[in-house]
């Protein structure tokens, strides 16, 4: 009797642990799409990673895919070469960004769901005016002066090929939403989750070593076509960091009672809600030179003199006329 109790208690504990593990990670109905994922060990077949292409400074080791090393002027990217036909998905990215820089480091990493893979450019190593979704892990605050948020900063942009990513403003004028996230130089593992379900985009982080997702932001009304490609890119400039991908996992989400299937292959990426417009704060003007300041003061003094003299003349004339009227 005692024996039996112990066994059932042990098995109960076991099932509890198992269950909580499963629920913590993902819905049991959702399943991993191998053709859109990359996990260790990477080099299953010779020197290439199945389903993935890479460009630039990418280095693959047993433990990580390094997009850029902690060196200046590096750019690297990996791109899935199988277009994604899944409509509702969650992309989980295990990443690590770290480097020698204590106060100065950059520039950051982007996770993509985009139309044109393998196209280098100015947005964290990938093309500007992209079609699709970009999630930016921006480690360097380019904008001088007043800033609405701290860095590192995670933001999302949906683009139909018309929007320019403005680095000088850290992309805040084209973002849907964003949040601060201190994911850099941490000893524990750091994860990002990008969930796209029924046109709702939710970005979450697991960066505190607690093995739990914390919501960064949620945006409704996001329309993304099928047939685009997942990718990750990173870049360094004058400042640098190691930008590593440890794994990328794509889960297809089981979405019950979805309305009649809409063909999503031809639609343009669109978002109904953008972040509330921010003040376009200009950088403070350069300090005035001595001579310029002197000239301005002289002009101001002259202006005051003219006003005073003019005022006195008008006053005297009105005195004269009122005197005339009196007599
Ligand atoms: C592209 O997006 C811009 C801004 O969001 C919008 O004004 C424009 O109508 C869109 N164009 C197309 C072709 O969807
Ligand atoms: Ca930046």
TrEMBL record:
It is found in: Endomembrane system; Golgi apparatus membrane. GO terms for cellular component: COPII-coated ER to Golgi transport vesicle; endoplasmic reticulum membrane; endoplasmic reticulum-Golgi intermediate compartment; Golgi membrane. Pfam families: Lectin_leg-like. Keywords: Disulfide bond, Glycoprotein, Golgi apparatus, Lectin, Membrane, Metal-binding, Signal, Transmembrane, Transmembrane helix. InterPro entries: ConA-like_dom_sf (IPR013320), Intracellular_Lectin-GPT (IPR051136), Lectin_leg (IPR005052). The chain crosses the membrane at residues 293-315. PROSITE patterns: L_LECTIN_LIKE, PROKAR_LIPOPROTEIN. The keyword Metal-binding applies. It is a single-pass type I membrane protein; Single-pass membrane protein. One of its GO terms (biological process) is endoplasmic reticulum to Golgi vesicle-mediated transport. The keyword Membrane applies. GO terms for molecular function: D-mannose binding; metal ion binding. Gene3D superfamilies: 2.60.120.200. Residues 30-253 form the L-type lectin-like domain. PANTHER family: RE50040P, VESICULAR MANNOSE-BINDING LECTIN. This is L-type lectin-like domain-containing protein. It comes from Larinioides sclopetarius.
